[in-house]
Design a protein that fits this description.
Layout lengths: L122 H16 L5 E5 L31 E8 L7 E2 L3 E3 L3 E6 L2 E6 L5 E5 L4 E4 L8 E7 L8 E8 L4 E7 L10 E5 L2 E6 L2 E6 L5 E8 L1 E7 L4 E7 L7 E7 L6 E5 L7 E7 L2 E6 L7 E5 L5 E6 L19 E2 L3 E5 L3 E2 L6 E2 L1 E6 L5 E6 L6 E7 L2 E6 L8 E5 L6 E6 L24 E3 L2 E5 L2 E2 L11 E8 L3
Antiparallel strand pairs: 1-15, 2-37, 3-36, 4-5, 5-6, 6-7, 8-9, 9-10, 10-11, 12-13, 13-14, 14-15, 16-17, 17-18, 18-19, 20-21, 21-22, 22-23, 24-25, 25-28, 26-27, 28-29, 30-31, 31-32, 32-33, 34-35, 35-37
């Protein structure tokens, strides 16, 4: 079961921010913001933006052209030359940081106006407001829930989360025709309020999308859609699926919009039907916004409880009992990871990240983030990569964690890199993590021509946090790293004027781009332009499977009388003639 971390140590004397020897925490590492020693014994590069936690910054360097001739990626600058946009500013030998304050983590800045998506998303603001209300309610909760009631272990083979990205021997080789045609166009039903429609998945044969009180499964060969009725609206959905294409959604108990999110539903995409439907214990709440799959285990967490099931047998593996701690949420994939909060102080919770035994829910590996960290999102479970913030800041830094449970590197986001995560623990949709590299996107900046804006994908070394390379989006586009495909990272280039978006694969050594798919141009409100996807705002997973690309929405709202086009649930593209 998840274990609470030990009580925090007493603050050092001398006043907050006074010069001092960095104290060690229970794992023998300095607190958040203190300089970290790399395993090579060298100090890591001082990272960019206002994330020096009180450390004075070098004067900003003038931007350089984001991309070389012919679309080739820019390489790290030679010694003695000023770095281009996105590169960490000036390295410092043995930097000494002041102790962090909330202000040191950087204030939240509004996203820049406009963007390639051109969509309609005011429902995201409503979701954030709703989440804030839910968090305020937590402050009054006296007892959290976490202690697991373990069931007996069964000797059953475990599946592996997810499916292969594409078919063929080399999925990063372009198809015979990279020009795409639209193969999925799911229009959203009419609703009278903001409605969650979270969840979308693709296999080599079907595309599935949650809708209002149902799931739609479209056969990609024939275009035929199958409707799978649900007892209520979807509250949360897994990003993953099992190896035999089963997915999980948490559903309201009735068709009422105010009904509690009580039902765990497993849907078999191959059979196009519900595999099983179970009432979750003590889930009398609308706060369920997290469900994750790892192997043959599905887990869900909410304010006041959590539960885990074996997907193949519907056996309950654990459920929450009263405790001083609670599972905030889960991330699935190769491992099942929980973010755990302990204590009753809402402003200063004791946070830990725990790898769980998927058969019992018990912690078998635990990492305690440095003091000052409050918000934690899990971008990857293997290797472990966290996106963290303090105070009200959702995301200020990316932390890479070794198997020795120690901090490897800290990449400060500041104002130079986009915040890649949403509110959920498993909501980091605007970044990707390889075996030894973290991929982020830079914020938009001036391009090489007049009135143009662009950005880049930046590759950072997992062990040191140093920048390896950057690869640009091109003029009037932004690029988003969103998924690994083998050793390569996939990037989505948003549409530009008169052109559709593109999917590119970037090789890991130097970031060389190869185009896999070019979407057709679309009008506002149609195709890609029906969604507000941009590098600074990726609020639902982008899906690329078998050289097919799908964009989806996780919320829909009441249509405006000025809308000419019906909003979309999802659109999808495949190579022409493929």
């Amino acid at each position: 079961m998840s274990q609470p971390p030990p009580p925090p140590s007493q603050p050092p004397s001398g006043g907050f921010g006074a010069p001092q020897e960095p104290p060690q925490n229970t794992q023998g590492q300095p607190p958040y913001g203190a300089p970290q020693q790399s395993h090579s014994g060298q100090q890591p590069t001082q990272l960019s933006g206002p994330a020096g936690y009180g450390y004075p910054q070098q004067p900003p360097q003038p931007p350089q052209s984001p991309q070389g001739p012919g679309g080739q990626p820019d390489q790290p600058p030679a010694p003695g030359t000023p770095p281009g946009y996105g590169y960490p500013q000036g390295t410092h030998a043995a930097p000494t940081h002041a102790a962090p304050t909330q202000a040191a983590f950087g204030a939240v800045t509004p996203p820049p106006p406009g963007g390639g998506g051109g969509g309609r998303k005011n429902s995201k603001v409503v979701a954030i407001v709703a989440a804030v209300v839910a968090v305020v309610l937590v402050a009054g909760v006296g007892v959290f829930f976490l202690t697991k009631d373990d069931g007996k272990k069964e000797d059953e083979s475990k599946g592996k989360g997810g499916t292969s990205a594409t078919g063929g021997e080399n999925p990063n080789s372009p198809p015979g025709n990279t020009q795409a045609e639209q193969v999925v166009d799911m229009k959203a039903p009419t609703v009278n309020d903001v409605t969650t429609v979270a969840g979308a998945w693709a296999t080599d044969k079907v595309f599935a999308k949650s809708s209002v009180r149902e799931m739609l499964v479209q056969d990609l060969a024939s275009g035929k859609q199958t409707k799978i009725p649900l007892k209520g609206n979807v509250c949360a959905a897994s990003n993953e699926m099992t190896k035999d294409h089963k997915v999980a959604v948490v559903v309201q108990e009735t068709i009422s919009n105010s009904a509690d999110c009580t039902r765990m539903v497993i849907v078999d995409l191959d059979a196009k039907k519900i595999a099983w439907d179970e009432t979750m214990p003590n889930a009398k709440t609308r706060s369920v916004d997290n469900v994750a799959i790892s192997g043959d285990t599905v887990a869900s967490a909410w304010i006041g409880g959590s539960v885990g099931y074996k997907i193949s047998s519907k056996k309950k593996l654990w459920e929450a009992k009263p405790s001083n701690c609670r599972d905030v949420g889960y991330q699935g994939g190769k491992s099942l990871v929980a973010v755990v909060e302990c204590g009753h102080d809402f402003d200063r919770p004791q946070v830990s990240v725990q790898k769980l035994d998927p058969d019992t829910g018990k912690a078998k590996w635990k990492y305690e983030p440095p003091k000052g960290v409050k918000n934690v999102r899990v971008a990857s479970t293997d290797p472990m990569v966290l996106v963290v913030g303090a105070g009200d800041e959702l995301a200020s830094d990316v932390l890479t964690i070794g198997e020795d449970k120690k901090l490897k590197a800290k990449i400060s986001l500041g104002k130079r890199y986009n915040k890649p995560c949403e509110l959920e623990v498993n909501g980091c949709y605007g970044m990707a993590v390889g075996s030894d590299t973290v991929y982020l996107s830079t914020t938009e900046h001036d391009g090489s021509s007049d009135m143009s804006e662009t950005n880049e994908i930046m590759a950072f070394d997992f062990a040191t946090g140093r920048a390896k390379w950057k690869s640009g989006a091109g003029e009037d586009r932004t690029i988003i790293p969103f998924k690994m495909q083998g050793e390569n990272v996939l990037g989505y280039k948003t549409p530009s004027l008169g052109h559709g978006g593109e999917i590119v694969t970037l090789e890991p050594k130097k970031g060389k781009q190869t185009t896999l798919l070019k979407m057709p141009a679309s009008d506002i409100g149609q195709g890609e332009q029906a969604f507000s996807v941009d590098a600074y705002s990726v609020d639902a997973p982008l899906i690329f499977v078998n050289n097919r690309f799908f964009i989806q929405d996780n919320m829909i709202s009441e249509r405006s009388s000025l809308d000419d086009e019906a909003p979309r649930l999802a659109v999808g593209y495949a190579p022409m003639g493929g």
